[in-house]
Amino acid sequence: MSFFEDPNPLLFLLGRVRHHARLFTEENLSAVRCGGGEGAEECRNDAAAMKLKLIAIATILVAGVAGVAIPLVGRKRRMMRTDGSLFVLAKASAAGVILATGFVHMLHDAQAALTSPCLPAMPWRKFPFSGFIAMVAALGTLVVDFVGTQYYAQKHREEAMGVKATAAAAIAAVEEGISAVPEAPETAEGDKDAMHIVGMHAHAAAHRHSHAHGHRACDGSDVAQHTHSHGHAHEDESEVPSHVRHVVVSQILELGIVSHSVIIGLSLGVSRSPCTIRPLVAALSFHQFFEGFALGGCISQAQFKNFAAGLMASFFAITTPLGIAAGAGAASFYDSYSPRALVIEGLLDSVSAGILIYMALVDLIAADFLSRSMSCNFRLQAASYTALFLGAASMSALAIWA
After folding, report:
1. Torsion of CA 3, 4, 6, 10, to 10 degrees
2. pTM tops 0.85
3. pLDDT beyond 80 at 304
4. Which of 85-94, 138-147, 166-175 has the lowest average pLDDT?
5. What radius of gyration do the chain's Cα atoms show?
């Protein structure tokens, strides 16, 4: 049988040629994508890009400072008090922004980086590392949240016990001073002191009773009883004071925001394309303002001292501008498409996504939307849900440009 009578060898050769052509095409496409694509050089202008980076540093710095400062400066003013309706609505909108940042921006960017054709298929494209790492980060945040809350709660209880011991010693000293004068006639002032001491014990007993049953309904009596009970020291030692929770929340939230702010700043700083930087300036300024507002609200509710609050706010505000400056300095030799850069960026974005999603859902949205004060106020509920959805939708829409 001749070569032409048997078509199998010819088909085999054609198949091998087609296979090699496909591999050659994929390698070329991969090289183009790893090099940034053909469109990366179309709008390259180093001088114009540097001007836009300087504008971005100033604009994002102002937006971050304004966002984080408004809750801190306004906490002593009536309209922006942390228990006011305006603050609750603004915080709900900021929570929506942070939730969308985690799901729409960070998780997507992590997925794009860790499945890039510049990375080897094994293991990066064989396993969904971005979602897995985000899940691990969320669970790790839960552990840190729990341990931190327990630590600060124990510290608070020890301080409270010290105050109680001091007060008990003072009362005992007063009682001993009164009993040291047995022959003195009872005066109106003595009766008043004795009645005051008895009244203190009676009030403590009443407080323990009211605190156990003051969460049943939204009627006026229970609300008044609950409000009155919170004006005094808690007898229930197992209850974690709200400001202790906000101490932990504010610190973990800052960690999540700062970690992805570094990546955002570096990404903008290394870009040499004005076409890429220009829309990012407005998008990141909006993003920075509302993240700052959410963080500033948590810092305000945590009741930090002025120095500690100012330090946390300043650290947040300067992170992204410093990242832009560092990226601009490294733009000449930094290759954002190198395997090492892609892996680091993908891992940090995944961790940030997990932290931000956990914080937004658990410590911002659930803590406020499932609270008793909101469940008893239908108008505040409706307005808060509207603000939450608008914040999430607005930040999601920015994914078109950023």
Report:
1. 90
2. no
3. yes
4. 166-175
5. 30
